[in-house]
Amino acid sequence: xxxxxxxxxxxxxxxxxxxxxxxxxxxxxxxxxxxxxxxxxxxxxxxxxxxxxxxxxxxxxxxxxxxxxxxxxxxxxxxxxxxxxxxxxxxxxxxxxxxxxxxxxxxxxxxxxxxxxxxxxxxxxxxxxxxxxxxxxxxxxxxxxxxxxxxxxxxxxxxxxxxxxxxxxxxxxxxxxxxxxxxxx
Length: 185
Fold this sequence. Notes:
globular, alpha+beta
C-alpha cells in the first residue's frame, strides 16, 4: 500500500485547485489551513491535519464560541450528527463549534479528500440558516455571498457523490423561496 505523506496531500490540493493559506509540520504531523467557500457560505476556515500513521482529520472552524444558548446549540449539534452522514459536530475546549470528518490513511486519495472537503462545505451551506445566531449575532438571515463560490469546480466534480446533501440543500432553497427568504445560488 502506498504511503500518504505531506507531499501527496500538497499535490492533491494543487490538483483540486485548493491553495492553503498556511502549512506547518511538527513531529511528523502536517497541517494545512484553507479559506474556502461553500455555495452560500463564504470564507469557511478548514484545517487539515495528517498523521501518516493513522488518519487525516478535517476540522471546520464552524462558528465563534457559544454564548448563553449552550444547551439549545448542543441539542442542534446532536441532531445534525444523527442526520448528516460522514461528519460530526463537536465543541472545542473554548466552546467553539467545530465540524469534523476523519479519513483513515488506508483509504486516503485525492478524490477521497476532495469529496470530504466538498461534503463539509455542503454541510456548512445546508446548516447556514439554522446557524445564523452563532455566525451573525443579531441578524435575522445570513448575508448573501457577494461573489461566486471559489470552489464551484469542486462541487461540480463531486456532485454525483454528494447528490443527497445537494438535494437537501436545494429543498432548503425551495422552502426559503416559498417563505420569501432569499437564498443565493
